[in-house]
Automatic annotation (TrEMBL):
Domain of life according to the entry: Bacteria
Alphabetized UniProt keyword annotations: Acyltransferase, Transferase
Protein name: GNAT family N-acetyltransferase
Lineage: Bacteria, Bacillati, Actinomycetota, Actinomycetes, Kitasatosporales
Species name: Streptomyces monticola
Keyword Transferase on entry: yes
C-alpha cells in the first residue's frame, strides 16, 4: 500500500495556506536569487502570498488537491476549468523533504482525473525556465511543450499541454 493519499482540500484551509506559503516562498526566492542574488524581500513576499487567494480553485470549476505522505500534508496540485474543453494545472508543489518519494506520480494522475471530472479534454500549464524539476515531472507524465495558450503573466516562460481522453490512462500528446 502506498504511503501517499490525495484528496480535495478547501483552498482556504490552514493546510492549503501553509502549503501555498511554502510554494510561493520557494518559487519567489528562486526567482530573486536568479535575478538579484538575494531572497525575496519579506514585505514583498507577504504581498505576493496575499495577492493570490486560490479562490479560482474552488468548486464548481476548480479544485485544490493535497497530497499527504503517511498522513502528513506534503504537496499540492490545483486544477481550474478554463473553458468547456480545457483545464489548467497550477500550484504543483511538493515540500523539499518529500521530493523523490513518488508524490508527483500520485498528484499528476489525480489532477488529470479532476480535469476529466470538469469535462476537460485538454490539460495545460505554464511554468518558468528555471523550474527544471517541474519540466521533468510534466514530461514524464506525457505533457509536451506547446505555444502559449494565454497571456498567463510575467513569470510564464514555458507552456505544456496534454490531451486527455475519455478513458483515464489513455492519453496522447496534444501537439
Amino acid at each position: 500500500m502506498s504511503p501517499w493519499t490525495v484528496a480535495a482540500e478547501p483552498y482556504d484551509s490552514p493546510t492549503a495556506a501553509a502549503l501555498w506559503r511554502a510554494y510561493y516562498t520557494e518559487v519567489s526566492d528562486r526567482w530573486y536569487e536568479r535575478e538579484s542574488g538575494h531572497a525575496t524581500d519579506p514585505d514583498e513576499l507577504e504581498r505576493g502570498i496575499a495577492s493570490q487567494s486560490g479562490a479560482d480553485l474552488a468548486p464548481p470549476t476548480g479544485v485544490l488537491l493535497v497530497a499527504r505522505y503517511e498522513g502528513v500534508a506534503a504537496g499540492t496540485a490545483g486544477v481550474r476549468l478554463l473553458d468547456g474543453v480545457r483545464a489548467e494545472l497550477t500550484r504543483v508543489f511538493l515540500l523539499p523533504g518529500m521530493r523523490g518519494k513518488g508524490g508527483g506520480s500520485v498528484l499528476m494522475p489525480a489532477a488529470e482525473r479532476a480535469a476529466l471530472g470538469f469535462g476537460a479534454r485538454e490539460l495545460v500549464l505554464d511554468t518558468r525556465h528555471d523550474l527544471t524539476e517541474s519540466h521533468a515531472l510534466y514530461e514524464r507524465h506525457g505533457f509536451r511543450r506547446i505555444p502559449a495558450y494565454a497571456d498567463t503573466g510575467p513569470y510564464s516562460e514555458r507552456w505544456y499541454g496534454k490531451q486527455l481522453c475519455g478513458v483515464f490512462g489513455e492519453a496522447s500528446p496534444m501537439y
